[in-house]
Design a protein that fits this description.
By secondary structure, the protein is mostly helical. Helix content is 61%, strand content 4%. A two-stranded antiparallel sheet has the order 1-2. Strands 3-4 form a two-stranded antiparallel sheet. α6 (91-101) packs across α7 and α20 crosses α21 (425-436).
């Protein structure tokens, strides 16, 4: 859910407004081809300074709230001033000044002082270290983008996905294992399995986005300067409550990395579920299967082609990019002693993971929206081998009556003949018993052939679908 802190909500709305200003560099981490407009107010390059400013601002608000700032100074903490700071200071400005200050946060503070009332200058960055600001800004940036943008897109995708499951809950399709025809399922069942994985990871990501901690405990994490210069010991707690972030239980100069790592890893799992949708859709759209059509492009060379499954392929391929970006995180879990500077440059592009996954989500929405199922082709593909796929229930029925190696008997004796003759397994068993004089098998067959459920499956293989329809209908109600 979005923050209930109205002042923070104002700041986030301001960030979205200023992203529309001309002259702002809104390039996000990752390939320039994949830059979803909806994320630019949150991850655009010139917006990063804004997240740092918000943390600095709310630290001053915290100092006022806990009585560390006199009232005559605190009254200058007005929303209009915050908007000016966010509007006038860009990351590129910070970069330019950093060449003089030799420090990114010192450059930011110098820029902020140009727009702050003089009475607030002494309270800016008071008792703070750079990574109090930076780590907390990373957590706030990620949580905010997820709450304000991702959740809406995830729920939208889930809704149209669930509708597609419901529409196709009873449409017969060949189930496949090892890309070979297995038992019958339904199109809705196929989509339901993938949606269930997607929904599970989406819910987990929603929870983990709330667990990325911030910190404000000083240069090595002991809050030493606060304990000497500020009477209240609640500063960190009050600040994180304002920002809607949990407080790191223990920190050094930086927050423990596990909270952010867990969140990003859940995005990798979410990406994998979407990639599986893409892989399946592109296979089922192939000329050999032809069971569906989705958002596609034509060929630059082969003018006879009209359905290259570009959306499905994009979703599938982007998972590799997500994994590659994620590898930065497990490779940067170690920081020497209370902190070193090796990984600060790497952390700047962590959010590429979020950008790419968001791109997958919107592409998957386009894919599902465009999905058209050829019911006749799906049934024909199954029906071409339908008489054989119910061999499972036949050999299990024989096995129940203690026929030695029933699987081998059906696999080597009944199925090959049925495959050659084109007859169903019921007729195959009848012919075998009539022609071979095998008393043991004939006696067992005479007994089990009275089972109407078995007979129905052997004569009408498309009915051998177990709970496929129920599972699809249940998943169609699995709302995010």
């Amino acid at each position: 859910m979005k923050t209930t802190n109205l002042e923070l909500e104002y700041a986030i709305d301001a960030m979205r407004q200023i992203s529309k200003q001309s002259g702002r560099n809104l390039q996000m981490p990752g390939d320039g081809r994949y830059q979803p407009d909806k994320l630019k107010p949150f991850f655009g390059y010139d917006q990063w300074a804004g997240w740092l400013i918000i943390v600095e601002w709310f630290w001053m608000k915290t100092l006022a709230k806990i009585g560390a700032i006199p009232q005559e100074d605190a009254k200058h903490l007005m929303e209009g001033t915050l908007f000016i700071l966010l509007s006038e200071i860009k990351t590129t400005d910070q970069d330019r000044l950093e060449k003089e200050t030799k420090h990114d946060i010192l450059a930011l503070l110098a820029l902020m002082r140009k727009h702050l009332p003089i009475r607030l200058h002494r309270w800016l960055h008071f008792c703070a270290t750079s990574y109090d600001i930076i780590n907390t800004a990373y957590a706030l940036q990620l949580k905010t983008a997820f709450e304000w943008m991702f959740i809406l897109e995830l729920r939208n995708l889930s809704e149209i996905w669930r509708k597609k499951i419901q529409e196709n809950a009873e449409v017969i399709q060949a189930g496949r294992t090892h890309l070979q025809t297995a038992l019958p399922v339904t199109v809705g069942f196929w989509l339901a399995n993938l949606h269930n994985r997607f929904a599970s990871s989406s819910r987990k990501a929603m929870l983990l986005a709330e667990e990325i901690p911030g910190k404000f405990s000083g240069a090595v994490g002991t809050s030493a300067s606060q304990r000497v210069l500020i009477k209240s010991k609640d500063g960190e707690k009050v600040l994180m409550k304002m920002l809607g972030l949990p407080v790191a239980e223990v920190s050094t100069q930086i927050t423990p990395p596990e909270g952010m790592a867990r969140f990003y890893y859940e995005l990798v799992l979410l990406s994998g579920a979407l990639a599986n949708l893409g892989e399946d859709a592109r296979i089922l759209q192939s000329s050999q299967f032809g069971e569906l059509v989705s958002h596609s492009s034509s060929s630059s060379a082969m003018s006879h082609k009209k359905a290259n499954p570009i959306a499905a392929e994009n979703i599938a391929g982007m998972h590799t990019t997500v994994i590659a970006e994620f590898m930065k995180i497990p490779m940067t879990l170690v920081s020497d002693l209370q902190r070193d500077l090796r990984w600060s440059n790497v952390m700047r592009s962590y959010s590429a993971i979020a950008v790419y996954v968001f791109q997958q989500i919107t592409t998957a929405t386009r894919l599902i929206n465009s999905l058209k199922i050829d019911e006749n082709k799906a049934y024909a593909n199954f029906n071409s081998i339908a008489n054989l796929v119910v061999a499972e229930v036949l050999h299990l029925s024989l096995q129940c009556e203690s026929l030695p190696d029933a699987h081998h008997f059906i696999n080597k004796e009944i199925v090959p003949k049925a495959e050659t003759s084109g007859q169903n397994l019921w007729i195959g068993m009848e012919k075998y018993c009539n022609e071979h004089g095998d008393k043991e098998i004939s006696m067992i067959w005479k007994k089990i052939s009275k089972d109407e459920k078995l007979k129905e499956c052997l004569l009408f293989p498309h009915k051998y679908i177990g709970d496929a329809i129920k599972i699809a209908q249940r998943e169609a109600e699995n709302k995010l």
